[in-house]
Design goal:
alpha+beta, single chain
Length: 128
């Protein structure tokens, strides 16, 4: 093993990690609160890979700009998590869809979790 490989993120098997459902619930709630402007995006940084976090920061900034242009104050989103569906394409990967019902619409939040350094990290997130 080279020095670079030794210090790189190490994949972790799903059997060594906790059930991903509570994390998926928390991430979904946190992301929706970030986009609504009632939570700081930095609070979620430890659960995201660099690329996914940068994407979330960009989307949060766009949401803040849109709220400002419309003159809408940040407000805690009202939603209910209807279901969580998970699939494991590889041993250290979970791909999940969290169905969220809000007052005006029902949305799907797609999250890809990868086991890295003995914890789950979100490497991709999409709100549909």
């Amino acid at each position: 093993m080279t020095l670079h490989e030794y210090f790189a993120p190490q994949p972790t098997s799903a059997s060594e990690l906790p059930d991903p459902a509570p994390l998926l619930r928390s991430l979904t709630q946190g992301v929706l609160e970030v986009l609504a402007g009632v939570r700081e995006v930095d609070q979620l940084a430890r659960w995201f890979s660099e690329d996914a976090f940068r994407s979330l920061v960009t989307r949060a900034n766009l949401s803040a700009r849109a709220r400002s242009a419309r003159g809408v104050a940040p407000a805690r989103p009202a939603f209910e998590i209807l279901s969580i569906r998970c699939a494991a394409p590889r041993d250290d990967v979970i791909e999940a869809v969290v169905v969220v019902a809000g007052p005006g619409r029902t949305r799907a939040v797609a999250i890809r979790l990868e086991g890295m350094d003995r914890r789950w990290r979100a490497t991709s997130l999409a709100i549909l």
